[in-house]
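Q: Got a minute? One more chain.
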Amino acid sequence: MTARFRDGTIRGRSGRPASSITFSNRCPDHFKGPLLSRSSVVSVVRCNSASVVERLLSARLPASGLFWMGGAAFFFSLMTLFIKLTGQRLPSQQIVLVRSAATLIYSYLAVRWAGVSPWGHRRRLLVVRGLFGFGAMICFYLALTKLPLADATAIFFSNPVLAALFAAAFLGEQLGVREVGAALLSFGGICLIAQPTVLFGSGGGSLNLVYVGVTVLGAIFAAAGYATVRALRTSEHPTVVVFYLPLVATIGSLPTIELVDMPWPTASTGRGPGGPCP
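A: Always. Here it is, folded:
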């Protein structure tokens, strides 16, 4: 049994909040809590009548950032698989354009649902975050079409370690022995995957080092994007930060329509270059 108090929280018999999510009487101007803190509280718009938001509040949604990051990693892995399959028929630039345009629609709806302005407060930094994300997508999607899926993914996922280094260098966050050790292991893993002839001689690996470098560049862009998100945590609502990435990526991808031959499958044939699209 629960009761609703004047502060907007829902409490059970023990007096403890029934959910880690609260809502206020007005639309929040920005998200003020730490991005991945366990104690972070998300403010949402209070509806005049029973709504989907209030039903979600009573569902005891997990507040742990690790939970949501784990879910994001799962769906990101599925996305890389579909990119690999689609990249056998379509150029990577076209995949970036379609993905960005679709995400732009969804993220705009999320911003409207949250009741905040989509343009944010620190617009220049939001655009910079979008540019970093766009660069990461271009590099990673190209790498997925040119390198084995496991190798491209393993190299690209060195970006969390790089993000920790950027956060320490530019945001003043502490970097401990574990983070330094993880960075060294990550770079060592990249060398073992790529096996450059400089280190392994004539018995080096068969991976194209150009595309390995493109993947590393994408990881750097992604890490810079994550560090920028961290810098925006005190001034911007999370949905606004998400919105700017597909916005910048869609605009940045439009010129590639003229630079790259983009074969668009039709609904009647479902065919791309060389045969049916996967």
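A: The radius of gyration is 22 Å.
Q: Perfect, thanks.
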